């Protein structure tokens, strides 16, 4: 391989997932020589966001389980006393892929209608005035009808997340983005609606004090009860008595002891504490605190969502790494890891030996030998392209819904619209994530059936006029499906699925990944089940402090204006020779 | 549309390694040039306020931070660009040939809504060098074939044509700034910062 990639690094990072990218940025920030490789032509690995075409390409690779070329073990680059361990195959970790269209490939009538309309207007505009308005009406309706060709044409307007997550406004990732000054690379939207599913309908959860008083869904006494309860949780201190006796009980049992109405119980348990009927009381209190403390910083819910989807975030950290001298090479696979004794010495990539002091890699790229008994199952994911929101309101909403499943983990649902640049105008994107029990299709079925219209849409008959619908629902204020609505009417309000994708992928956050690896190899879990980034940030921090215990983790990067740039590209690219000393 | 909110224009500079992208930026903003390569903190983005036809706009000029070296610029880099500056070295035919690739890459990754009229500006840098191999005519021809892109021959070293080029960049970026009001029914996007804790403006329910 003829390239000028230097051959010696302090840190080599394989894979550009969230955790890997944070570690890369942190190492580069303190002046370490970092090489960051990814075999794909995009950033993010299992944390990526895709255009529609890119998603199709990714699915093909997963289906074909693209195997990396097995390397001759007798490579001349492997020295005496060293052995070479092959890198894992990331595409083999995704399984149970189910993809389904609910709309025709093409709208059969649209072309005919258009030509008919043209001839009509040209030939005798007066005569067929009635016919014209009729065909225009259909054309207008057709704007709301979708076909596969139309979705594909607009494919670049999608940013389909493999691992959709939200940021708590006062969570560790937001604090890290601010303190490290990486926030300048990203923009966010505030999640502006938290829904819950109760008694077979969707309701907006009042989160803030103002919300509680404004809501029509709870009575006056309930409002007071809710405020009292939330205040108790916020003010909770370990030495207080409020939760005495509930240490070994569930949050549900505590809430029951407060004589809350069923309505309130539901709001607090599922939406605010983001728990279920088996969550321990103190875990629930902690989650309630986390929820409440993030309220009001940026908006009326505790959550932020990155513009263009979650795949942007790893790239922000990679940019910081690059700005501080990290070398980036996409479309560059690592083939094997060279180990001697209990240490990783180097990696082999494209016929080159690249030495390193530390190796950081994602579980998806890890050699099977390093993984031991790490499970291959974990997450059930669903991605749905919809023709409208699950609950239409006068403004475009960005929604979180924890869909409760009796006795199991809830299904986390995030719905985002075109103003976050994740889908074209007129469409919505709905993500479902839950713990894998069977497979994605089965695990997500309760939420899919409850919320979405799953019949095939032939593209000829429009189910219901959307405009009428939205005026109907917005009048009701907070209540999405008002009590007056009959069930049949509500049924008609469900969004049509245009395209659905299901898959399963591993969830390794609960496993100690350091058991089977050489001492200077650090594995990063893929996306975890939780809705936020707490786990990824925590893991990145712990990997960094293992590598460089005495160094600060991502200290604030200076603003560009604070630097006097003295870089001159004319003299050659950075890192002309690997021996070149690096200054800060 | 009377009062436009966005006066911040994102400009990205593309081109092969060592054609002088960072130097051009540095010359324009800091009026500095150095021949000596110093391995220091790389270039990120620089901002400058300029007057364009009686309007003050803030140019935010993004450097590639070296990620172009192995064609590893991620899609996030291209997001929301208002103008793309294509730079080549007049003494390097290879860097001139790469312009097509960089232009295509930009159009694919940024996918602007009007690709045929997106404002590119082409700079032939290092015009001070005596051993130039790409003729002015050849470069102009290429720009002509791409819907008549503006072309400047610059020298970051001698500060030749640098200001003129960036004024054109700012003007053309501003002229194409049409997408801005498309999504105005949703509260403003949020930039995170520790000090000013902004809230979503359009929210009816203020938090407690």
Give your account of this protein's structure.
- The complex is a heterodimer of chains A (584) and B (208).
- The longest helix of chain A has 16 residues, at 129-144.
- In chain A, the strands form four sheets. In chain A, strands 1, 2, 4, 12, 13, 14, 15 and 21 form an eight-stranded mixed β-sheet that branches.
- Chain A has helices at residues 18-29, 52-64, 109-123, 129-144, 148-153, 172-180, 209-214, 220-235, 251-257, 262-272, 281-293, 312-323, 368-371, 440-451, 466-474, 487-493, 534-547, and strands at 8-14, 34-37, 49-50, 82-86, 95-101, 160-161, 167-168, 188-190, 193-198, 201-204, 303-306, 327-329, 336-340, 343-349, 352-362, 378-386, 399-405, 408-416, 428-435, 497-506, 521-524.
- Among the domains of chain A are: 8-48 and 310-374 and 509-571, 3-Layer(bba) Sandwich (FAD/NAD(P)-binding domain), CATH 3.50.50.60; 109-144.
- With 584 residues, chain A is an alpha+beta fold.
- In chain A, helix 1 packs across helix 17 and helix 9 packs across helix 11 (281-293).
- Chain B is an alpha/beta fold and 208 residues long.
- Chain B has one domain (8-183): Rossmann fold, CATH 3.40.50.
- Chain B is built from five helices and six strands; from the N terminus they run E-H-E-E-H-E-H-E-H-E-H.
- Chain B has helices spanning 21-30, 75-78, 93-110, 136-145, 162-175; strands at residues 8-14, 45-52, 55-62, 83-89, 120-125, 151-153.
- In chain B, strands 2-3-1-4-5-6 form a six-stranded mixed β-sheet, with helices on both faces.
- In chain B, strand 4, helix 3 (93-110) and strand 5 (120-125) form a beta-alpha-beta unit.
- The radius of gyration of chain B is 18 Å and the shape is globular.
- Chains A and B meet through helix 6, strand 8, helix 7, helix 12 and strand 12 of A and helix 1, strand 2 and helix 2 of B.
């Amino acid at each position: 391989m003829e390239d000028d990639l230097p051959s010696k690094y302090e840190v080599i990072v394989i894979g550009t997932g969230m955790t890997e990218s944070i570690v890369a940025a942190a190492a580069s920030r303190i002046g370490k020589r970092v090489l960051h490789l990814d075999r794909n032509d995009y950033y993010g690995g299992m944390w990526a966001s895709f255009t529609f075409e890119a998603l199709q390409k990714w699915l093909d690779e997963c289906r074909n389980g693209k195997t990396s070329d097995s390397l001759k073990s007798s490579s001349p680059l492997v020295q005496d006393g060293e052995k070479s361990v092959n890198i894992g195959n990331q595409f083999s970790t995704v399984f149970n892929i189910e993809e389904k269209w609910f709309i025709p490939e093409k709208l059969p009538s649209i072309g005919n209608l258009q030509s008919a309309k043209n001839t009509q207007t040209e030939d005798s505009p007066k005569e067929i005035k009635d016919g014209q308005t009729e065909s225009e009406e259909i054309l207008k309706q057709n704007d709301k009808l979708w076909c596969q060709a139309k979705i594909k044409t607009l494919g670049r307007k999608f940013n389909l997340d493999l691992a959709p997550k939200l940021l708590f406004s006062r969570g560790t990732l937001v604090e890290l983005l601010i303190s490290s000054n990486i926030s300048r690379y990203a923009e966010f939207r505030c999640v502006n609606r938290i829904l819950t599913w109760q008694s077979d309908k969707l309701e907006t959860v009042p989160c803030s004090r103002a919300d509680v008083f404004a809501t029509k869904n709870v009575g006056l006494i309930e409002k007071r009860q809710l405020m009292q309860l939330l205040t108790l949780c916020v003010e909770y201190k370990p030495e207080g008595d409020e939760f005495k006796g509930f240490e070994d009980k569930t949050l549900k049992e505590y809430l029951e002891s407060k004589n809350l109405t069923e309505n309130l119980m539901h709001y607090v348990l599922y939406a605010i504490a983001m728990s279920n009927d088996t969550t321990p009381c103190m875990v629930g209190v902690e989650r309630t605190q986390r929820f409440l403390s993030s309220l009001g910083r940026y908006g009326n819910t505790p959550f932020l969502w990155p513009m263009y989807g979650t795949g942007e975030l790893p790239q922000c950290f990679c940019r910081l790494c690059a700005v501080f001298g990290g070398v980036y090479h996409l479309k560059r696979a690592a083939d094997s890891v060279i180990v001697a004794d209990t240490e990783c010495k180097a990696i082999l990539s494209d016929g080159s030996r690249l030495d390193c002091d530390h190796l950081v890699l994602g579980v998806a790229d890890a050699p099977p030998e390093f993984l031991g008994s790490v499970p291959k199952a974990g997450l059930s994911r669903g991605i749905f392209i919809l023709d409208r929101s699950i609950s239409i309101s006068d403004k475009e909403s960005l929604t979180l819904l924890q869909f409760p499943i009796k006795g199991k983990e809830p299904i986390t649902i995030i719905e985002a619209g075109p103003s976050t640049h994740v889908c074209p105008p007129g469409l919505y994107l709905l993500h479902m994530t839950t713990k894998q029990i069977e497979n994605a299709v089965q695990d997500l079925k309760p939420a899919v059936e409850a919320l979405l219209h799953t019949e095939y849409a032939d593209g000829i008959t429009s189910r219901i006029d959307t405009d009428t619908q939205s005026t109907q629902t917005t009048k009701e204020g907070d209540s999405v499906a008002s009590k007056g609505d009959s069930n049949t009417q509500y049924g008609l309000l469900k969004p049509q699925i245009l395209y659905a994708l299901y898959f399963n992928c591993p969830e390794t956050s609960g496993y100690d990944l350091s058991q089977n690896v050489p001492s200077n190899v650090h594995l990063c879990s893929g996306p975890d089940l939780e809705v936020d980034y707490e786990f990824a940030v925590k893991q990145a921090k712990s990997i960094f402090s293992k590598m460089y215990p005495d160094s600060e983790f991502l200290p604030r990067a200076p603003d560009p204006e604070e630097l006097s740039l003295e870089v001159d590209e004319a003299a050659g690219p950075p890192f002309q020779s690997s021996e070149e000393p690096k200054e800060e | 549309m009377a009062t436009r909110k966005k006066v911040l224009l994102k400009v990205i500079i593309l081109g092969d390694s060592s054609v002088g992208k960072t130097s051009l930026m540095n010359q324009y903003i800091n009026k500095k040039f150095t021949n000596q390569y110093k391995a220091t903190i790389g270039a990120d983005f620089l901002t400058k306020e300029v007057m364009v036809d009686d309007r003050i706009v803030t140019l935010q000029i993004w450097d590639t931070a070296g990620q172009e070296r192995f064609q590893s610029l991620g899609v996030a880099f291209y997001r929301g660009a208002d103008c793309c500056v294509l730079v080549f070295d007049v003494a390097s035919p290879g860097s001139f040939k790469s312009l097509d690739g960089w232009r295509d890459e930009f159009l694919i990754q940024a996918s602007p809504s009007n690709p045929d009229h997106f404002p590119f500006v082409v700079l032939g840098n290092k015009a001070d060098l005596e051993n130039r191999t790409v003729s002015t005519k050849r470069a102009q021809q290429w720009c002509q074939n791409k819907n008549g892109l503006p072309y400047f021959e610059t020298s970051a070293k001698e500060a030749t044509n640098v200001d003129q080029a960036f004024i054109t960049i700012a003007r053309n970026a501003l002229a194409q700034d049409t997408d801005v009001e498309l999504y105005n029914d949703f509260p403003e996007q949020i930039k995170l910062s520790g000090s000013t804790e902004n809230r979503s403006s359009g929210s009816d329910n203020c938090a407690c």
